[in-house]
């Protein structure tokens, strides 16, 4: 019986992916194991996320597409879980202040690439990631639980910024970022 439900859910996910849905939402609650992956890209950037969990776990995932692509993934597990999340975007920002732009007649746009990532192994706890890819890249990563994780971001243009971190043990992590988008 469980196999029939799993097969039906898999067929629904495949059909919705082929149809080019503007909104996709998945909710899974299990006391066995779950693996869920999603990825997408457009002219502005791309994202990919994966999660695997065993024991009692609840997984919520939504992906919406309009002017900006938004990805949201939440996992609550009483057992071990493995998660990975990556997003990249191209952003534009002005290098000159508005007075210089008016005087020179040039709209000097600073264009660059930005990427963010997080991944980890959590024994039990909660992971929540939100990514918005559009005119820039913004979002957050929240982790509460026990385990280890790495996270970071990098932007490359005329100005560059790099951020990396590693956390282990009992943790409560909140990472917010915005590169040209809205927070």
Question: Can you walk me through this structure?
Answer:
The chain is mainly beta. 13% of the residues lie in helices and 67% in strands. The chain is built from two helices and nine strands; from the N terminus they run αββββββαβββ. It has helices at residues 2-18, 98-104, and strands spanning 23-30, 33-41, 45-54, 57-65, 69-77, 81-94, 109-133, 137-156, 161-179. Strands 1, 2, 3, 4, 5, 6, 7, 8 and 9 form a nine-stranded antiparallel β-sheet that branches. Strand 4 and strand 5 (69-77) form a beta hairpin. It is flat. The N and C termini lie far apart (43 Å). Residues 95-100 have low confidence and may be disordered.
Helix-strand blueprint:
Elements: H1 2-18, E1 23-30, E2 33-41, E3 45-54, E4 57-65, E5 69-77, E6 81-94, H2 98-104, E7 109-133, E8 137-156, E9 161-179
Antiparallel strand pairs: 1-4, 2-3, 3-6, 4-5, 5-7, 6-7, 7-8, 8-9
């Amino acid at each position: 019986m469980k196999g029939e439900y799993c097969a039906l859910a898999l067929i629904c996910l495949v059909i919705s992916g082929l149809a080019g849905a503007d909104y996709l939402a998945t909710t899974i609650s299990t006391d066995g194991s779950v693996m869920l992956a999603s990825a997408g890209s457009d002219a502005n950037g791309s994202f990919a996320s994966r999660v695997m969990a065993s024991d009692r776990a609840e997984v919520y995932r939504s992906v919406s597409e309009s002017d900006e692509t938004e990805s949201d993934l939440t996992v609550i597990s009483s057992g071990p879980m493995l998660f990975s999340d990556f997003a990249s975007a191209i952003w534009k920002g002005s290098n000159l202040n508005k007075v210089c732009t008016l005087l020179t007649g040039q709209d000097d746009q600073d264009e660059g690439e930005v990427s963010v990532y997080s991944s980890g192994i959590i024994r039990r706890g909660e992971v929540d990631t939100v990514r918005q890819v559009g005119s820039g890249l913004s979002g957050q990563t929240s982790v509460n639980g026990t385990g280890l994780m790495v996270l970071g971001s990098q932007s490359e243009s005329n100005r560059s910024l790099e951020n990396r971190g590693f956390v282990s043990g009992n943790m409560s992590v909140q990472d917010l970022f915005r590169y040209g988008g809205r927070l």
